[in-house]
Amino acid sequence: MRRATIIDIALALGVTPSTVSRALAGNSRVSLTTRQKVLNKAAELGYQPNVVASSLRKGTSDTIGMLVPRINRNFFSHVISAVEEVLNPAGFNLLICQSHERLIKERQAIQVLLKNRVAGIIMSHSIETTDFEHIIQATRQRVPVVQFDRVNKLIPGPRIVNDNFTGAHLAVKHLIRNGYNRIAHLTGSMAVNVYQERLNGYKYAIDEAGLVFEPSMVIENAITRETGFEEALKLIAKNKVDAFFCAGDFSATGAIQAIQHSGLKVPTDIGVVGFANEPFAEIIAPKLSTVEQNAYDMGIRAAKSMIKVIADNNSGDGIEEIVPVRLLVRESSVK
Amino acid sequence: MRRATIIDIALALGVTPSTVSRALAGNSRVSLTTRQKVLNKAAELGYQPNVVASSLRKGTSDTIGMLVPRINRNFFSHVISAVEEVLNPAGFNLLICQSHERLIKERQAIQVLLKNRVAGIIMSHSIETTDFEHIIQATRQRVPVVQFDRVNKLIPGPRIVNDNFTGAHLAVKHLIRNGYNRIAHLTGSMAVNVYQERLNGYKYAIDEAGLVFEPSMVIENAITRETGFEEALKLIAKNKVDAFFCAGDFSATGAIQAIQHSGLKVPTDIGVVGFANEPFAEIIAPKLSTVEQNAYDMGIRAAKSMIKVIADNNSGDGIEEIVPVRLLVRESSVK
DNA sequence: TACAAAAATACAAACGTTTGCACAAAAAAC
DNA sequence: GTTTTTTGTGCAAACGTTTGTATTTTTGTA
Q1: CATH value of B61-162+295-324 in 3.40.50.2300, 1.10.3720.10, 3.40.50.150, 3.10.310.30
Q2: Which residue ranges in chain B fall short of pLDDT 50?
Q3: What fold is seen in the domain A6-49?
Q4: So where are chain A's domains?
Q5: Which of residues 114-173 of A touch B (CB under 8 A)?
Q6: CATH 3.30.450.40 matches A61-161+295-323
Q7: Which residues lie below 8 Å from residue A280, measured CB to CB, with a gap of 6+?
Q8: The predicted structure's pLDDT at residue B1
Q9: What is the pLDDT of residue B314?
Q10: Most buried of the four, A98, A241, A273, B284, by CB within 10 Å?
Q11: What is the pLDDT of residues A17-47, one digit of tens each?
Q12: What is the rounded CA–CA span in Å between residue A202 and residue A196?
């Protein structure tokens, strides 16, 4: 059963393909009567537009490429979901790739998206990425790039970021107000804006309270539950910390386990605040105080930004949209 | 900066586009020397194949459509991730849609995928879907459909399912062995194969142990944490249950909270086993015993199955692949 | 009734590939 | 040295749309 084309409709109606095309597109140059005839015949033949042909002719597609480190990470899957929710009603589809946090895979993915002539790319770069040439290349081909979460200013186009600084500031201030004053910070790689900004927020809060910033209290690359557990264990042993501000909920969970493993109590002996509000944060015991990162909001904004950039033909260069965060105070940080 | 095409390469080299096309495709009909020249020139011009044009000409694309109820559900995001991991190296891309558990959106999504001339569709249908005509329509157009998790036999093509029956059987048998004998079952909609099979496994285990099956102990549409909490509360109040087998970890969490809310203890007074092994299952207190549902494995199999079906030109009709499950015994079900 | 303006439709080229067939040149076979 | 086979290229059409321009038809006006 060959699929019906515009030509089949044209032939059946004794008009030309161009008229059918315009009729289907709702072009005002075709009369209402023929448009109706075309629509009827299209329905009758079960016509399904061939967007591949359409894209080729128009030189652009209705597909937006999405590139994230890992599809199955809670944060990213929520962003993707939100992006889809906005883009789909707007007539766009989502072509999704993951970099697995590898630069090589990220490069390949960009090529795949460009080969597919996507109308734009929404992305968050891998943790390995320090050279952004492959991404800039896309913008040079006039394929707009909207970055979110992990972003870099070298790449033209809008950026949607969390208010990481404020989130960290709020979290640490909250710990200090609650009587903690030897606060360690478990974080990720300083090559990523996200962790840099959280560290800055941490430092600012420490300064602001008149406490002394101790570099030995900041541990980089401790972002998983396992590394969080290990590093927290060491810090407890030698640095007499009385609180942890963790740049992620996973390391925060590790820290809690390390504290309990050391025979101490959360929050009485040591307080903990995480970052991200992962779904388990309010299920674990004690319930984890954390900075809510609104993945959904971020996805909505990224998608809307993309639609705008496409509509305005590559505007929005360098605009940075900051998504507000909230500190969720639960049990792990209040004595 | 216009993008280089095959014609540009041909012109620069004084050969025809057809030769360039064949050279790039590695066709043996073109000599090694010209192929090398073509490849060099392609690199020099920064040539990126236009897969849109290629797809139009070939009549099929390298894009696989993926349709799930919700991208951001842990299970689905893991399946998607695994599918991507297999499909990408095989040269396929993923076009992703979500149905939001709505039949209307599912229908639209299928149309979108067909319009995009995807080479196949990997999907799990919405909870509302009882009429499968829109999906069968795809197969009629020779677009292969591979179903996973929530599947229906009316739809031609392979199906990848969990061993829900065995999982439920193991879980309930385990509860019985551990001294529980008034076991309630919180589950989802009976319109979905997944929950039907789990109920069957539950019944079988009850029968097998010589216990009496009580319909009042089975609560449908109690699959979220909230409904799990409410229904568990009611059952505890009037049915003197001593265990819950829940068809999902969310309702299991709700049940645990209801038990604790009623002043009882897990697992001493009431045992709980969930289903899915959500990430929080081993973080909550008490750690949740659950049936591991290997989303990753399922995704790998679905993707491989799709590749095979495409390669063999729509074979594999009606083949059902059953993914083994494991019972993870933790704290919530052992007195 | 004639003529201009407006509306509706037709024509044809283009988007960038792929591929069956034709053809020439080189290599192999006789 | 002729014929056959092999190897390498070229030619041209096709995939299904879209769209600028040309043409026809309709409508309005004098």
Answers
A1: 3.40.50.2300
A2: none
A3: 434 Repressor (Amino-terminal Domain) (1.10.260)
A4: 6-49, 61-161+295-323, 164-293
A5: 114-117, 140-141
A6: no
A7: A249, A253, B279, B280, B283, B284
A8: 63
A9: 72
A10: A273
A11: 999 999 999 998 899 999 999 999 999 999 9
A12: 10
Chain B touched by A335 (CB under 8 Å): no
Residues of A in contact with B112 (CB under 8 A): 88, 93
Please indicate whether, in this complex, the C-beta atoms of B283 and A253 are within 8 angstroms of each other.
Answer: yes
pLDDT score of A247 more than 80: yes
Same fold across B6-49 and B61-162+295-324: no
Residue A305 has pLDDT above 70, yes or no: yes
- Which of B3, B74, B283 is nearest residue A141 as measured by Cβ atoms? B3
How far is residue B186's CA from residue B232's CA, in Å, rounded to a whole number? 8
The confidence band for A335, taking pLDDT boundaries of 50, 70 and 90, is: confident
Return residues 283-312 of A near B (CB < 8 Å): 283-285
On whether the A164-293 domain is CATH 3.10.25.10, my answer is no
Separation in Å, CA of A181 to nearest CA in chain B: 28
A253 touches chain B (CB under 8 A): yes
Q: Given this model, what pLDDT does residue B101 score?
A: 95
Cβ of B34 less than 7 A from strand C: no
Phi/psi class of residue B100: alpha, beta or left (left: φ > 0; alpha: ψ in -120 to 50)?
A: left
- The answer to whether strand D lies under 7 Å from the CB of residue B34 is yes
Q: Do A84 and B98 touch (CB under 8 A)?
A: yes
Say whether B94 and A95 touch across the interface (CB within 8 A). Answer: yes
In this complex, is the C-beta atom of A80 within 8 Å of any C-beta atom belonging to chain B? yes
- How many angstroms separate the CA atoms of B139 and B147, rounded? 12
Q: 3-state class of A220 per DSSP?
A: coil
